[in-house]
Amino acid sequence: MVLGSWFFVLSQAQAQVTVPVAPVPTPAASAPSAAPWTFVRLIKLPNPGAASLDRRGALYVADADNNLRQYGAEGLALNTYAPTQPGHIAQVEAWNITRTLVFNDDRQQLVLLDRFLAPIGEVRLADYGDGTVRTATLAPDNHIWLLDESSLVLREFDPNTQRMAQNTPLDLIIGRSRPDFRFLRHYQNNIYLVDRTTGVYVFDNLGNYKKKMPFTGLSMVGFRGDELYYFDAGAVHFFHLYNLSERRVALPVEVDPATVRQVLVGESYAYIFTPLGIAVYQLKQ
Q1: What is the pLDDT of residues 201-224, one digit of tens each?
Q2: Is 190 contained in some domain?
Q3: Are 26 and 214 contacting, i.e. CB atoms less than 8 angstroms apart?
Q4: Number of folded domains in the chain?
């Protein structure tokens, strides 16, 4: 299934509204708590790439050959998607279980997979214009959110109508800064856009800008319950989205923080990514 030509169609009458940047208060940092980790197994997958967790805790991760591998929450292999043509997997979004989105940035392609990683649709963005999409994600309603880096616009595409549902220009929001957008995620009716340079921009589910979270130097963030989390300075930082409190959890003592590329945290298991593979840990409740 190839979706219609939609990507670069914008209304010429679209108004741009200046919205003041309102960073959330930086919470006071606490000392890292004792690590709640119990080692389960090592997934021997050298140089793992983009990854995502679904609602049930299954892990989806790109391997060094840009195949997408699916594992159960405890790290046992389930399914593999091997694309017919090579392409670099820049982002994976599997949260809604029934559909998984794979974004190939070098080929400017979106691939939709079912729960067993069988292809059910694709969009070749380069067929519809000259712009460049930096990152993409899938919303719970199966709409696709895109960051068009060429025109600095956050876009929402409705695959049912094959039309752009929302377009949010970012030039007035980011001002004179030089953004380095790395990651996009829809969670609890908000959209989180990670800029490694200035922080995490937050939009509502209609694309309206809300605020900026002052977490810089990040390439991705994750979510667990009502908390946003990220890995930094040898610990996993958890930031509560509503009461703005922060807690930190130190890595297991046997893990060298310098080797850690990313950390994903589910309800019962956590996954630590290193060049050797993915260490699976059970979390103490």
Answers
A1: 999 999 999 999 999 999 999 999
A2: yes
A3: yes
A4: 1
The confidence score (pLDDT) of residue 31 equals: 59
Of residues 221, 217, 218, the one with CA closest to residue 229: 221
The tens digit of pLDDT for each residue in 38-49 reads 999 999 999 999
Q: Which amino acid is at 103?
A: F
Structure tokens at 155: 């876009």
Tokens representing 50 are: 């983009």
- The tens digit of pLDDT for each residue in 126-136 reads 765 577 999 99
Q: How far apart are CA 237 and CA 251, in angstroms?
A: 11
The CA–CA distances, whole Å, from 166 to 137, 155, 157, 158 equal 14, 6, 7, 9
Pairing between β-strand 133-138 and β-strand 119-124 as defined by DSSP bridges? unpaired
* pLDDT score recorded for residue 176: 86
Answer yes or no: is 25 within a domain: no
At position 104, the amino acid (one-letter code) is: N
d(CA 247, CA 229): 9
> What is the token pair recorded at 3?
């979706």
- Distance, in Å, from the CA atom of 173 to the CA atom of 279, rounded to the nearest integer, reads 39
Asked whether residue 30 is assigned to any structural domain, the reply reads: no
User: pLDDT tier at 165 (50, 70, 90 boundaries)?
Assistant: confident
Dihedral, CA atoms, 75, 142, 120, 47, nearest 10 degrees? -40
- 12, part of any domain: no
Residues 125/108/130/123 CA torsion (nearest 10 deg): 0
* pTM score: 0.86
